[in-house]
Amino acid sequence: MSSRIESERLANCLAELDQLTNWERRPRGDMRVDLEPMRDLARRLGDPQNSFRIVHVAGTKGKGSTCALVEAGLARAGFAVGRYASPHVMHITERVSIDGRPVGEERLADALGAALAAFKDARREATAAQGATWFDILTVSALLIFSMEGVEWAVLETGLGGRWDSTNIVQSDVAVITNIDLEHTEILGKTRAAIAFEKAGIIKPGTTVVTLLPEADEAGAVVSARAAELGSAVRRPIVPPDATIEQRNVAVAAAVLDVLGKMGVMTKAASAVSEPLGEQLLDPSTIEAARLPGRLEKLAVVTSHGDKVNVVLDGAHVPFNLAAVLSDLSQEEKYRAPCIAVVSIAEDKDAAGLLSTMTRHDMSIIFTTVGARSRSPQQLKTIADSLGLLSIVVPDPLEAYQEALAGAAESGAWVLVTGSLYLVGIIRAA
Q1: Gap between the Cα atoms of 25 and 4, Å rounded
Q2: Taking the CB of residue 361, how many other CB atoms lie within 10 A of it?
Q3: What is the rounded distance in angstroms from the CA atom of residue 111 to the CA atom of residue 146?
Q4: Residue 172 backbone dihedrals phi, psi, to 5 degrees
Q5: What is the largest CA-CA distance in the chain?
Q6: 346 DSSP assignment
Q7: E-strand stretches of 48-152
Q8: Are 176 and 58 in contact (CB under 8 A)?
Q9: Alpha-carbon distance 325 to 337, whole Å?
Q10: Strand residues in 322-395 grouped as ranges (E)
């Protein structure tokens, strides 16, 4: 999936890391419920998470884009900012950014080397960190980089859930819960309330919580109750019901900056007068600069025959997110034409739900596969057939994409690549 790794040291560290449990690549049913391995690792590395202030972000969707917007706002205010994200689309260094740029391969190799050494010490001494996972080691490496680079603020995206997520050893100034929908139900619970309980695990005593979940909502009520229990204030930005995904993410990020301003965090402008942080930091150019690859990414692709095709790359893998993506796109004339979608869906995702969402639009589908966790394209075709969706199977993702471009050029359709960020990564690399 990734672009090639140039650094031999980084390649060696990642090979060593790949011997550990990696829940991004495995069935998720029996994940660990314990933060001690992570705490032990961090202690062995001098608790790097205590050397900067933190905005901690959980939620079903929109986490990555919200983190990027908060990062951009803090950077515009003059702070040195780190951002930790997952998964990556093209290259593993995308997961650890400083001042909006992925860290270099050698920098990541240094930190992974130190984290792996701490892990080996724990194994020798039989302490908690001997149970560290792939994600634990990567997370503690990011915290170490932020500490060593002297960042003042870090924006951390949870990997999965919240309560037992590797990132949850931190004390944050603001905890964000973007939204809650049914995802990873085998680990997080079968209802939105149960999932909200897991995500609300990132709320710490005295932290301010920013969420779009209304108080009357079953998930919103859980977040409110947890915040009340811990003496944490809750801030709910107002967004119109028909707000786009981007408008929602911007509203959340603006509320975070506003909360920090009210806490007395001031801009560090060299030339202008220092002022409290707030939504004014998210001007159009800052919002534009914070766009992430593979999230509502719009391209005009010229085929080998010289035809121009509108292509959208979006890694949506939850029905409500895909519905929002398609609804946002349908507001633009060029995306009201028929669509050819190139789709891969992981085993643990709600394939029937995702495909049902597509039945509301004029779509035909090319099913493909991107590795061991992908559901078989033939199985997906069977579900599509039962829903009355027109589809074919092309197992190779690049061939599937070429087929979609050719079909779109011929029929005046547009192309959507979706269902998996891994698929988006492969198409982007090509």
Answers
A1: 19
A2: 19
A3: 10
A4: -105, 160
A5: 65
A6: B
A7: 53-58, 81-84, 96-98, 101-102
A8: yes
A9: 15
A10: 339-343, 363-367, 390-393
Cis peptide before 87, with omega less than 30 degrees from 0? yes
Q: Is the pLDDT of residue 28 over 50?
A: no
pLDDT tops 70 at residue 2 = no
- The structure tokens listed for 356 are 């049902």
**Angle, helix 105-125 to helix 8-17, in steps of 10 degrees:** 40
78: left (phi over 0), alpha (psi -120 to 50) or beta: left
Check residue 298 and report its DSSP letter.
E
3-state class of 120 per DSSP? helix
Instruction: Confirm if 335 and 414 have CB atoms less than 8 A apart.
Output: yes
Q: Under a CB-based contact definition with an 8 Å cutoff, are residues 360 and 394 in contact?
A: no
pLDDT tens digits for 61-98?
Answer: 899 999 999 999 999 999 999 999 998 988 999 999 99
Alpha-carbon torsion 230, 231, 236, 237, what sign? negative
- Check residue 186 and give its pLDDT: 60
Q: Which pLDDT band holds residue 411 (cuts at 50, 70, 90)?
A: very high
Q: Distance of alpha carbon 218 from its chain centroid, rounded?
A: 24
Place of tokens 């070429």: 402
Give the pTM.
Answer: 0.91
